[in-house]
Amino acid sequence: MSPLQTRSGLALSVALVSAAALAYQLLLMRLLGIVHWYPFAAMIVSLALLGHGISGTVLAVWGSAARRRFLPLFSACAAGFALSAALCFAVAQRVPFNGLELVWNPGQVLRLALLYLLLSVPFLFAATCIGLALIARDAQIARLYAADLVGAGIGAAAAIGLMLALSLADGLRVVTLSGFAAAGLVWLEAPRPRRALALVLLGAAVAWLWPAEWLTPQVNAFKGLSKALLVENTRVIAERSSPLGLLDVIESPSVPLRHVPGLSLTTTMEPAPQLGMFTDGDDLGVITAWDGSASPALDYLGATTSALPFALVSSPRVLVLGAGAGADVLQALQLGARAVVAVDLNPQRVALARETFADFAGHLYSDPRVRVVIADARGYLRANAETFDLIEFPPADSLAGAGAGVQAAADSFLYTVEALREAHARLGDRGVLAITRWESGPPRASLKLFATAVAALRAQGVVDPGRHLAAIRSWNTSTLLLTRRTLDAEDTARIAAFCDRLAFDPVHYPGLAADSANRYNIVTTPWLYQGAQALLGPDPAQYVRDYKFAIAPATDDRPFFHNFFRWRTLPELWRLRGAGAAALLDSGYLMLAAALAQAVPLALVLVLVPLLALRRAAPLRGQWRTAAYFLALGLAFLFVELALLSRFTLFIGSPLLAATVVLGTLLVFAGVGSAASPFVRARHPIGLAATALAIALPLVDGVVLPVLFANAAAWALVPKALVSAATLAPLAVVMGMPFPLGLAHLAQTAPGFVPWAWGINGCASVISALLAVLIAIDFGYGSVIFAAAALYAFAAMLGWTMGGRSS
Prior knowledge:
- This protein is of the alpha/beta class.
- The protein is built from 28 helices and twelve strands.
- It has helices at 8-35, 38-48, 50-68, 70-92, 107-136, 141-165, 168-185, 194-209, 212-215, 224-228, 327-334, 347-356, 377-383, 399-404, 417-425, 445-459, 489-502, 527-535, 540-546, 570-575, 587-617, 623-652, 655-681, 688-712, 717-735, 738-749, 754-779, 781-803; strands spanning 235-242, 245-251, 274-279, 282-288, 317-321, 339-344, 370-374, 388-393, 427-438, 469-473, 477-483, 505-508.
- α23 packs parallel to α26.
- It is globular and about 85 Å long.
């Protein structure tokens, strides 16, 4: 039987390649997030996906020859993916790229381009496999595209499972084996299927023989962990890995760790011995040596800005959101808390403190006053109605990373107007919400947080927010308090006394005089004090508009708290970058914008080059209309995917589970829609599914999801995940139809252009992943959804004219 007459082996191979490629994409983001910073990793992988666009160009130009040698070429490309997935990562992480230098070191641009080139190779091989199948079996496009989507959905879930069960290096080994398995599986349809077993065995051998040092991520030399390990005798004593982060615990016997954020400069006490715990090579937390009792040796914990709320509440019941290694829990117990609920998302981080180093930590997390909860902070606030005397948000990132703006393009749902409202509602009558942040100059995060707090209080109906707010600063941190009740004269006297005793500067409290706001940690201009006054004044919106950095309150629709970038400030900062202003350029946002600027011309080249060759061979009537149709679909699909991922991450309360549910549901059920598309095409015009999406998307996002989220916020994780999947599935089925409908029409009218359309879709996906985040940062995820609806409406208009009624 001819290999082009049977279908099951090829469909399974396509699904396996797609699953392996998506699993590799997610693994690669995790790996590069360790080697570099996560936003850089996401951007690098997005551009590496241009390999999909390149595959379309290759197949468009040489597709006829490739079709004649389909089976060996498909198998070779699958094996090429398997080999290059691990090998290209091994080489890429040895490229001396540092994203923080991009704004002043042009040489880093070349290194970044080299990373794109290296990491695009595996995606080129994988996409070529799928493209080959589509042009060789053009009569089965819907079925094969369905296999591609379902495989990708399975790959998304498999990647999470791999990261939970195995090391990242072993996850790459599984990807290698999967690629070889796909290369072998397609030979089951050949007259001599023994090659299938041979390729699988070869894949197992290659995966086993990869040197571990090639596949193990090496932390960026500019991250905190790398710098700490430069100190004599410092060593890693424990390591844990999961999708939530790579954790490294270090000890430094020669030069002891002294990590106490916001410690007063008047303090002469030596901090207790500490073990450092780094997440992805950065974001340092500490496990502090403790004997299990209140000790004078820990009195320095009362000399930090984060100790301020304990001057206002006595013997409080405390909620710590982001307890981590336990430093803030220990501080609360030392300062008199009667009970502490310690919430952290990463069970491995808690286990290191509670189990592995329990003796060193004085069994802190086993103390009867402490209750540990493994949960997302926002999810915990929404699912529990209990109240607290004090709720604490500890610093959630590194000082270096915050200062360099590497998190500018990352979602952060803990510092939004809605988050502060939810936390404020969990306070008792005399309760206090305390948020400590790293301080930088000129102030950005502290002012944005203050603006967000003012907006949250006003949204709660508080007429005079200034009487419910207090803030102080040290040389490197600031602490903001939101109170349930108004602050009276006794409260303000305590705050003033706390600051005077420890040489902290007040930023705001009711009745604060200007000459008291800049006495100890002196700055040329008291920007924080002046900003607080303006944000509480008659026209805070004008102050926000005029400020050099973006400090408008973050919201759940625009959860980019760490983004302070403004285009109008860029020329000034660029001129001053040699004088130290480079750290103020918000490298995360700039890299995203620069990546988009590179992706667009590259995508145009990849679209236009094959078109020139194809037009000479077989002209296509309405070529630009066809190109616009597939471009719009590629943009819209990822717009929807990224926006819904943000929405459901907040709803489900677990980023890990949300990614599995959203990606898995959208891709698998889009595959169902693709498989059903021939039945739709036989009866209705091509544009019908896109029309339905243009109408449904705004309704789902604006009506269905708000009602669902409001009524199911307190549900447990599993019911939330199930109802999320049930909500997304019908939408996903329709999302899976427009592309195979258009591709099938093209296969009938101009089959030589099928790989061209495949390449356009790949290029559009790269642009979409970058553009969606930029739109969300500046306009919100709601705007991303409306943009997707507009794109589907545009595709619908084109689709109704492309196919008419098909028989």
